[in-house]
Amino acid sequence: MTRRVLGRLAAVAISLIAVVAALTVATGDGLAQGSAAQANYAPVNTAPPVVSGSAQLGQTLTATTGTWTYQTTPTYTFQWQRCDVNGNTCSAIAGATATTYVVQAADSGSTLRALVTAQNADGTTSAASAQTAVVGGTAPASTALPVITGTAQAGQTLTTSNGTFTSSTTPTYAYEWLRCDANGATCIVVSGATTATYAVQAADVGATLRAEVTATTTGGSTSATSVQTAVVTVATATTGAINAAEVTLPNRLVISTVSFQPRRVTNRGQILARFHVTDSNGRPVSGALVYAIGLPYAWARSSGEVATGTDGWASIEIRPTRALPLGRGHSLVFFVRARVQGQNLLAGSSVRRLVQITTG
User: Fold this and answer.
1) Residue among 337, 359, 340 at smallest CA distance from 349
2) Do residues 87 and 130 make contact, with C-beta atoms less than 8 angstroms apart?
3) Over the stretch 175-217, which tens digit does the pLDDT of each residue have?
4) CATH no., domain 242-358
5) For the chain, what is the mean pLDDT?
């Protein structure tokens, strides 16, 4: 072989070695770069989670995972957050780590969102949903007034409906009864009348009554008032006495009639005071205990408690003292109480009344 041929072969060999070396370097760099990229390929969120459901007390919200790209399939965890009305200043709700969340009373006035975390072998990434509407929404709206049923008569029981309210959640209801003038105006609240039923009292005679119903949800409260009743009338008297033990609330004792003999005090002789006791329905009450005492105490003395007879009447002897002035312009006042034996003196079906007899 000539020197020229050998020289050419050597040149070709050197070129081949250079090409192989270049390919090796290029391939090695590419593998290194590819491995680094794969190691840093944590999940990437391409669409945020979405919360569905009504942001109202007791309602259930549901969150999706959102959309992610990844090299290795991730696992997802959830954390519900409570935020201000603008969806800022969010804080984690303890224990709320499921895909669903039941809205609580503590969420009222806030917004809610779901924070979803995707994790695989390459890393961890989180994405938050948009905030919900403010929890609670608006107050109930009245669409039909409450309606009162029953007879507007002393001793009878009236009942009010709730009326109709529209709201996103079921409201709770509170009641007040109002005593108004004959035209349904100038109303005042009847103390203690806070249920859907009301036992008409002797004090209501000549007035009308209304019921005010208040509906409340987490969004607020709204009140609606019924149309007034007819003017309240006195109880219709019925025949036949009843025993005092039968008079229980809402029925009450009533000192319906008072008489004195003599009708005017001109001396310090004995006075016979008679008291007629009925129930709220006008029936005479037998066995009611009646007590009377003069005011001031030093002006008169009376016998003790006396039970009413089968006709509902009780008679009490009054003896004026020397301290009683007999001149014209004076009056002897009595505090009178009728009660049912065994009931509380200041409660139950008892009744109290002030009466007087003039002197001179």
Assistant:
1) 340
2) yes
3) 999 999 999 999 999 999 999 999 999 899 999 999 999 998 8
4) 2.60.40.10
5) 85
More confident residue, 282 or 180: 180
Category of 282 on φ-ψ map: left (φ > 0), alpha (ψ -120 to 50) or beta:
left
In the chain, where the domains are located: 44-128, 141-225, 242-358
Inter-residue contact 123 to 249 (CB < 8 Å) = no
* Two structure tokens written together for 42: 């944590």
Q: Do domains 44-128 and 242-358 have the same CATH topology?
A: yes
For 44-128, CATH number? 2.60.40.2700
Longest dimension (CA), the chain: 174
- Average the pLDDT over 211-224 and give the result: 89
Residue 164, classed as helix, strand or coil, is strand
> Tokens in use for 192?
């203690």
Cis preceding-peptide flag for 43 (omega within 30 of 0): no
Q: Where do the H-state alpha helices sit in the chain?
A: 3-39
CA distance 82 to 101: 11
The answer as to CATH 2.60.40.2700 being correct for domain 141-225 is yes
Amino acid in position 151: T
Give dist(CA 303, CA 317) in Å, integer.
Answer: 6
Task: Supply 133's token pair.
Answer: 């509407």
DSSP 199-239: E--GGGTTSEEEEEEEEEETTEEEEEEPPP-SPPBPPPP-S
Asked if residue 250 has a cis previous peptide bond (ω within 30° of 0), the answer is: yes
- Only one residue has tokens 């005090």, namely 265
